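Lab notebook, bench 4. The sequencing result for the construct came back, and we need a structural model before the next group meeting so we can plan mutations. Quick request posted to the team channel:

Model the 3D structure of this chain.
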Amino acid sequence: MTTVPIRTALLAYGMSGKLFHAPFLTAHPGFDLQAVAERHEQRMAFDYPNIRSYSSVAELLADPALELVVVNTPGNTHFELARQALRAGKHVLLEKPVVTSLAELEELISLAQQQNRHLLAYQNRRWDSDFGAVRRVVASGQLGTLIEAHFRFDRYKTTLNVKKFKEEPGPGSGLLYDLGPHLIDQAISLFGQPLSFHKAEGQHRPGSRVTDFFSLHLRYPQGLNVWLTSSLLVAAPGPAYVLHGTLGSYQKHRTDPQEAQLLGGMSPLAAKYGLETPGQEGHLTLAGPEGALPPTPDPADPGDYLGLFEAVFQTIRNGVPYPIRDEQLRWQLELLEHPAV
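Done. Here's the predicted structure in token form:
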């Protein structure tokens, strides 16, 4: 098992690069964060003085020292930039949505195989504390045969996003391609490919030209129905996860603290990193001999996005299969691309 650090670069240093990538690439000993592409203002050196800043992606990709490139730019640029990186002989860690069509995904998968390089999807919310609790409860079998599951990711934002590219109609735009990949990936990581599905979308904010509401109904074997819903006009969000089975129910709010902790400057290596606040536990209600029992608090294990980077390292250096598989990405794109009814 080799431990030589992977020489890594970011293609942007906005919120994603600053919060979700750089802190982990520097905290994990398996990575050596060396470079960034900054086409306008060069800001990363203020946080990482030893970084090499390139004024273009082409210059960065021409650096022979770099092995892994993180494509963390707007979604509609992912396909072309990932293709350029693979052709330059780099491994690629690709933000969500990985691409905007199944055809684009198939081309990148094929190119990665031809180049003998890894194309890896960044689906960090598999490592959220709240979803980790859901995964544990499902795996435990305590709920019996699952009948229905509801996953929600809601916000309340009546005004349009100041980042204009997020509000322009086009491939990969709108809430479905923004938060949809999180919900879809979580569902298929638990339940696999659905037998069939139905999708609804809407535009409800004043002046909105892109989807700001969606709901996916996924049908699975043994009568399991799964609903994935997201809206930008939910002023009072309820539980993010609700599961009902033949032996009980489970509810959990969206309580993962990592984004807030990273915004506050906390290191991923800090003792309290990923720990939920007391009182944010999920609630497990199991059926007893006399009927339903009172809800039981169910504390979550800490969330830890460092687990994703550990998986990236193990795949590139030691050939360990990456947990976010190509076929799961195909299923995700099929759901994203299919027209709403």
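The chain has two domains: 6-124+308-321, 129-302.
Will bring this to the meeting.
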